[in-house]
Specification:
With 615 residues, the protein is mainly beta. Helix content is 14%, strand content 46%. Strand 7 and strand 8 form a beta hairpin. The protein is globular and about 85 Å long. The relative contact order is 0.10.
């Protein structure tokens, strides 16, 4: 878990900011005098300790920064969670709650680190430390106070706005648009330390107040000696994983349903339970299973997915997680309502695993034979004919360089996605892909944490992942305006519709994926031929979306209709994955399927659905 309060807190302490006049430089000069003047010239390093609170959790944070270079590291303990973030001038890194380090190279990590380095180096006053473009954006009033605004664009970073109190010339807040949210950080309670005026209170928000973060500085030390090694990514901790019997690997079967991988997992020696396996997914346990296992929940953090809503997430500790003969110990889990996904998936999901196992071990996903092989990194050696593709981490997700029809971009590799290729809206808009690809079919293309995801469905000629080509993949141009699919730093998300054409080795320790074509490679990638999206609703299926002029619309189906029988077979006897499989290649175009349907309180009626290729 990454705590966004800590960078803001450390930033607040060193990045005491500018004030106003007629130009940006005059504003900065007055601000410097208000914040300490010549005393700031003597600041070489800052060490801070603070208390932090957010989402029902409390804890402590500690940070170190070199103001001459902008190098920094911060560590936090928040309820049952802990972690760290740092930048040594070359590597942006983080550690998860079990101390596993990760070099952050994907998404917006480097842009965010550049902004942090700029602020920690106080480069608005010392531009030789980190160049930037600075513009005066005018004045604003807020709650009866007047502010001067500066827009700063650090080299290799992204723009952020500084609000400066026009009366005191003290820094009041920053506003920064990251990949999927805009974050505002307020500073207050200024106190003088060694001639320098510092804010001792920090309040960060993304606009949803229930997830606001608060920090109170407890101690500040200026000019303490800090060794360069403190800023470097730490070595991995002692192994918290093992494979029983001294074995070097274990192989377990999985089910591929709705293009999702489901495996049996034991928690604290109990089970097995059905868990979804997602390469970038955090550990999650459903509330019902948490109650069965007497797992206590702490906090209510913000959880996001591809949909436009967010949900509260509690945290708990689990003693052991077992997959096959592989066991991970002392794991942090989120408690999140996956039970409702039974209506979306047609499968009762008790939890989710992924990143924590993939990060520690080498995992081969054999889509052809529905098997996972988990191997100790020290015992792994590859001698096959597959194609290796290097990746960087976009937070927990492996991200590769690639292109679609020659347009270069970065692509997340996501076994937790049922889709083939989802192109994010900023990338699609930038390259006018809807017009270029003639995309006209709009539909619900998935259903996740935030609800339904919508997109324009089409095809690209070739998706390339590293040097691995994939021809004619089904492609969704996302229409989401909130959630995980609005990042301008990612081109697309590659799901199991593409991945299952290969057997893939996920070698996280060496940051490479190895693609081996399998028997699925040349099979057609087919979009739903029924022209509607259905979820389970008790014993029936409920129509959640109908594609304009598609087969379902032609048959007279409408959103909210309940389907009680399929070809004379009661819906209660038909699994949702089975029904979806029929409509996605199990039945040929032109096939007629009789549905028994009820609209509201009306009498049931029979309709005939004639399947048709829409894309």
């Amino acid at each position: 878990m990454r705590n966004k309060l800590i960078p803001a807190l450390a930033f607040a302490i060193v990045c005491l900011l500018p004030a106003h006049a007629q130009t940006a430089q005059e504003i900065l000069a007055k601000s410097k005098q208000a914040m300490g003047g010549d005393a700031l010239d003597q600041v070489r390093s800052v060490h801070t300790k603070a208390s932090i609170k957010t989402s029902g959790l409390s804890g402590e944070a500690e940070s170190w920064e070199d103001t001459l270079t902008g190098h920094y590291v911060e560590r936090y303990h928040l309820g049952p969670a802990s972690g760290a973030d740092g930048f040594d001038g070359t590597t942006v890194w983080s550690t998860d709650t079990s101390g596993q380090p990760r070099a952050e190279g994907g998404g917006d990590a480097r842009q965010g680190a550049a902004d942090e380095a700029y602020r920690r180096a106080m480069a608005y006053w010392y531009p030789q430390r980190w160049p930037a473009q600075i513009e005066y954006s005018g004045e604003k009033e807020d709650q009866g106070k007047r502010f001067y605004l500066l827009r700063i664009s650090p080299q290799n970073g992204r723009p952020f706005d500084l609000w400066i109190d026009a009366t005191t010339h003290l820094f009041d807040r920053t506003v920064e648009k990251a990949d999927i949210e805009t974050r505002t950080t307020y500073l207050s309670d200024y106190r003088t330390v060694q001639g320098v005026k510092l804010p001792f209170a920090v309040h960060g928000t993304n606009g949803q107040s229930q997830y606001d973060q608060f920090g109170t500085v407890q101690q500040v030390e200026l000019n303490v000696p800090i060794e360069a090694a403190r800023f470097r990514m730490p070595a991995p901790p002692a192994p918290d994983f093992a494979i029983a019997g001294g074995k070097s690997s274990t192989t377990v079967p999985f089910q591929l349903l709705n293009n999702h991988i489901y495996v049996d997992v034991k928690i604290n020696g109990k089970g097995p339970y059905t868990f979804l396996c997602d390469t970038g997914g955090a550990n999650i346990v459903a509330p019902t299973l948490a109650r069965e296992l007497d797992l206590k929940s702490q906090g209510a953090l913000q959880g996001r997915g591809v949909g436009e809503k967010s949900e509260d997430v509690g945290l708990t500790k689990v003693q052991s997680v077992q997959v096959g003969e592989a066991t991970l110990s002392d794991q942090l889990f989120a408690i999140f309502d996956l039970d409702s996904f039974a209506n979306v998936e047609g499968v009762k999901i008790r939890g989710l695993i992924g990143y924590e196992i993939f990060k520690r071990l080498v995992v081969r996903v054999d889509y052809e034979h529905s098997q996972l092989t988990i191997t100790l990194p020290s015992a792994f050696s590859y001698h096959g004919q597959g194609t290796p593709v290097p990746f960087q981490f976009n937070n927990h997700i492996p991200q590769v360089e690639g292109d679609i029809d020659g347009i270069a971009g970065k692509f997340d590799i996501d076994t937790g996605s049922r889709s083939s290729l989802s192109v994010l809206k900023p990338f699609a808009d930038k390259h006018d892909l809807a017009a270029r690809l003639g995309a006209k079919v709009q539909a619900v293309t998935g259903w996740g944490v935030g609800g339904a995801a919508r997109g324009l469905v089409t095809r690209v000629k070739t998706l390339r992942l590293g040097s691995v080509p994939v021809d004619n993949p089904l492609t969704e141009l996302s229409l989401q305006t909130q959630g995980a699919f609005i990042s301008p730093y990612v081109a697309g998300n590659v799901g199991a519709g593409v991945l299952k054409r290969f057997n893939i080795t996920f070698d996280y320790p060496h940051q490479q994926l190895i693609f081996e074509r399998n028997a699925n490679y040349d099979k057609p990638d087919i979009f739903d031929r029924s022209g509607r999206w259905v979820n389970k609703a008790g014993d029936d299926f409920e129509v959640m979306d109908v594609i304009a002029a598609g087969p379902a619309a032609v048959a007279g189906l409408k959103v909210g209709d309940k389907i009680s029988a399929v070809d004379g077979r009661a819906a209660a006897q038909v699994s949702l994955p089975e029904l979806r499989a029929r409509f996605r290649g199990g039945e040929a175009p032109g096939t007629k399927i009789k549905l028994t349907v009820q609209s509201g309180a009306a009498q049931t009626r029979d309709v005939v659905l004639v399947l048709k290729d829409l894309v």
